[in-house]
Amino acid sequence: MPIEGKVMALYQGSVRRKLLLLGATMLLLIASTLYAISRGAVEVPLYDLLKILFGQSSDEMLTYIVYEVRLPRIVMAIVTGISLSCAGVIMQALLRNPLADPFTLGVSSGAAFGAALAIVAGASVFGINLVQSGHWMIALNAFVFGCLAVLVVYGIARLKNSSTTVLLLAGVAIGQLFSAGVSGLKYFSDNEALKDLVVWLMGGFWGAKWQVLQILIPLLVVSLAILIKYAWDLNALSAGEEVARTLGVKVKRIRWVCLLIVTLMASTTIAFTGIIGFIGLVAPHISRIIIGTDTRFLLPCSCLVGALLLLLSDTAARMLLSPVEIPVGIITALFGAPFFVYLLVKKRRDYWA
Amino acid sequence: MTITKQRRTITIPWLIAIFAILLLTGCASAPSSEPEQPSSPPNQASPATETHEPEVLTFTDTAGKEITLPLPIERAVVLNRNTAEAITLLGAKDAILATGDTTIKNNPYLELAGKPDVGETKQVNLELILSLKPQVVFAYTNRPDQTLEEKLEPAGIKVVRINNYLPEQMDEELRLLGKLFRKTDKAEQFLKWKHSIEQLLADRVAGLKEEEKKSVLALSAGFLNTNGGYRIFPSQSIGGKPGVGEGYATILAGGKDAADLEWNPAESSTTIMVDEEYVLKRNPDVITLHGTWLGGYETEDAKPFEETLDNIMKTTSVSRLKAGQTRDIYFFYTNFVGSDKRYIGTLQLAKYLYPDLFQDVDPEQYAREYYEKWLNVPYKGIWTYSYKDAK
Amino acid sequence: MYMQVTGLSVQFGDKTILQDIVMSMSRGEVVSIIGPNGAGKTTLLKSLASILPPARGTVWLDGRDVRSFAANELAKKQGYVPQHSSFGFPLTVMETILLGRKPYIKWGITAKDMRVVADIMDKLQLTEMSERFLDELSGGERQKVLIARALAQEPQVLLLDEPTSALDIRHQLEVLELVRELAQQQQVLVILILHDLELAARYSDCIYLLQDGKIFASGRPEEVCTPSHLEQVYGVQVEIESGSYGLKMTAVRPVSR
């Protein structure tokens, strides 16, 4: 059967090429991680760094800096990059719309409102006492309101036959509503609470802690495992909902489960890092250009690209004006936006038509 | 007379404008009686100023603008709470017609809450100011923006921009207020008292050798407390000038800045956010924390201070620093060390840093004197807090 | 009878789209659904594909109510190609055809999946374009790929909604030849909606003529495509004569009703 061999070879060739690309991106991420570990406001010579990493160093302060300051921050950037771009790629696949990401569906603005509420109300209602548990309170509130926003958006869309256009428009509307809420809280809160809010809205990875990562990483692993299991269903969804159903996809269930998972992922990370824009939108598009639209490969690729972009951005935020820190959101937007525009203009195919 | 004339010429276009608006909106009945009122009070006021043989003072304010005003000022709206406090200590509080949110909230001891509130400093209620018909509005040099002049000057209201809290400006600004309110003697007496305290501090720390000086990091308490990162108040500006008040206090108190950052006065933020690693590397002997959300005149309970500092020790890497290990962490209410009462707060900071040099000095005594003697109100509140002494 | 429809009605809100549809079709047949715009052809096809739920009546497949099938089971029996395919983010030809194996795939691709796909690609001459993206193809090529995707499901029933609508005459013939071959050689029941009455008459074993949600006539092409039927349903005077390839129909003029 020569024809079968030929098709098989074609298929295996394409799979091999994609795996190779994934491997290369992975290597790039590892290299960037190593670079990020070696650089910082404090110079740690390579030899000392190796000693620290292998637990041989006697310099307590350097060990602390590398293990408790630099590493958690780097891991946090990677985890956030993965969460946000994974959320982006899944939302885009579910809604079959290139504009979908945690922002457009209202997750981010909902989470922002929740955090703002916790910061402003927490500071005024509970006084200082709340602040001890405040960080968790902010995170919890961000998560609850992030989910709430998606539920409302999804509810509105269901009223109107679950069309994806309505879903996106509802997302924009609800996003605006929550943004207005945040603006209102900013306006009416007193100065000190406001400062915290501004910091939170800018987003960033300072003060990243292993404690938080111990929650986020298992969540991330489980979520990714479930999502990758649905890769074929998501692929089928690209042919349209009706066709997907005739291919044996339980469309409604897939939508709910996937949307819930990515909302969970995005809002929990946003809760701890503040709002970091653009990654959720850009990483999936870059990945589609380099590896194609097959979700089996696109999902891991997006995660790697998102992690890579955010890690590089944060490293730049730390290093550019060291020791002065630039909010990472400024970097992602500053480099992300022009790059994205470049891709829009140069890209080979037109998903927008 | 000239003033009255000027006002009249301005009220005419004003009336025309209002009349036009009324015509356009078509509501002629009820509000029509109101616009006529503004024209009458200047007429009544003018004979009064004439009988006093108005003396006129031309001066340059801190923003560099030349202004001419009749003396003494009798009707002033004060947006700047430090200016409101300075006017009060000069004994001219009666001339204050209205203040803003920050004055009422942060300086309750000035007892100005009974007077109108023109709102937030950056977004004052211009209509309310106009309706109060002040001679002059006092504002900060950098806020609110020039809209204030654009809207008020055509109505004959002067805008004077002074700060009354920056170290190199506040003495001259107080003298100016002395002249404007005819309280020059009181101003000189106060400055003499203030200078004696500053001199005491300068004399005591003058003998410190460079290696004896403690390194101090001035940080925003609010950001640190809510995991917002390390925000430093730099002690110097670009070009070696004094930096932000909270940071500059370190230098005045005979310490050295643990950070090596320079502040750009053009920036709206008074703090610079730095990498956590940088703070760990600089490893200060002492940390001063600053904010206005802890302490103040109405505060009686020191518990929140302790809880906040415990929280910071628990959740941040402060506990890894020398300052954290020796509990050399001190909280200052911003006005006490970085603003108008700097001369008292820096003395307190110096005593925290070098207790041996200041055994016989009680900074709180000066604070008491300031409130009781100069502001004529009871001394209350918590203004500084020592984490070290709390143990 | 492999597929039967009994008393099927479909409603959108208050509006009745299909009323009391009765059909019966066997494997190996090519069945066309024809009728003017808005007659309910697409709704009928979607009901057969169990995309739309019936208000009344039942669609039977191999003696079972289609709604009693699990989604995956049904997907192994029926393939569906809609009239307007949206791609979302376009996949490659190979990936699209592989999607047809979705009901059989757990996660990895088996040798069986590969063999089915390879056969179909060979038969439809798609092998050369396997790495191209769907949106880069011409209308005819794309239609073939979408049919290939449905074929990869190894269905007994193939449902095609106007498969020839955007194609030039050569591609129209290619697609319909392919459809007839499938029916004859693999005993697939092909149900398709066609606009072109001559092509419908030429390639179909059985035609259902729809008017206003009801079946107006059904049976062999020459029984259904009569001047009187077409005039009543389409409002057009038609001349019909037999040619060497089915019926020749000439629309003469619209008639006033």
UniProtKB/TrEMBL annotation, chain B:
Region described as Disordered: spans on this chain: 30-53
Keyword field: Signal
PROSITE patterns: FE_B12_PBP, PROKAR_LIPOPROTEIN
Domain Fe/B12 periplasmic-binding: 75-361
A Pfam family: Peripla_BP_2
Biased composition (Low complexity): 30-48
Endpoints of the signal sequence: 1-30
Tagged with keyword Transmembrane: no
InterPro entries listed in its UniProt record: ABC_Transporter_SBP, ABC_transptr_periplasmic_BD
Similarity section: Belongs to the bacterial solute-binding protein 8 family.
Protein name, per record: ABC transporter substrate-binding protein
